[in-house]
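User: quick one, fold this
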Amino acid sequence: MPVAPRRLTQVLVGALSLLVCHTPASAYTGGPLLVDVLGWDAKTHRVYFHTIPENESFSFGAVYYFDLGGVQKERRIQLAWSKGETERNDPDHNHRMNTLRSRLKPLLPDPENCLGWGTTIVSADSVEFSSGIRARYRLHFKGMDTPRFECTAYGLPDACLKNAYEIPGRKERLYVFVFRGNVFDIAETQVAVLVSEPSDRTIPVVWERDK
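Assistant:
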C-alpha cells in the first residue's frame, strides 16, 4: 500500500533524527580554536600544548609538543593517542592529558612580551570557497620585543599575541599567536609558535587542522 505523503514525511524526519543523534561529533570546521599550554618537560626537552575547538562539535581537540632537542624543533608533533575524532569528555583522553600535565613544569605567561606595535596589511584580495567569497589578507604583526609574525587571515585583518612564555634554561620562546586563519569561519584561531632564538627574521604562522 502506498505511504501517505504526511506519513512519508514523518518517516523521513524520524530517520534523519536518528542519523543526527547517532552520528559521532564531526571534526572541527569552524568556530574559535584555543590553545592551552600544558607545560615543559626538561628531561625530554619538550613543551606540550592542547588545541581546543570551542564550537558545536564538542570534540577533544589534540595534544602536541615541540621537541627542542630535535632537528626541526619548530615543527609541532601530535601525540598518537590524540589523533582522530573524540568527544571532549572522553575519559581515556582526559586521563592521559591530566597524567601528562601532572609531570610537566607549568609555564607562566609573560604579558609584557605580548605588547605589539600593531598589524600591517601587506596585501588584500578575496578567495572563493563553497559558501561564497571571503576577504583575504596577508598580515605582518610586530611585537615590542618579539619577532615579526606573518599570516594569512580571512574576513577581518586581525592579529595579535595572546600569550608569550619563556622556557626555563632555554633561549627559545613559545608564543600563542591569534588570527582568523580558517577560510570557512572568521572566528579566532590560536596557534602555538615556537621561535628558536631572538632574531629579525619573519616567522610564518599557518593554521592547520588537527588530524
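User: anything notable?
Assistant: The chain has a mean pLDDT of 84.
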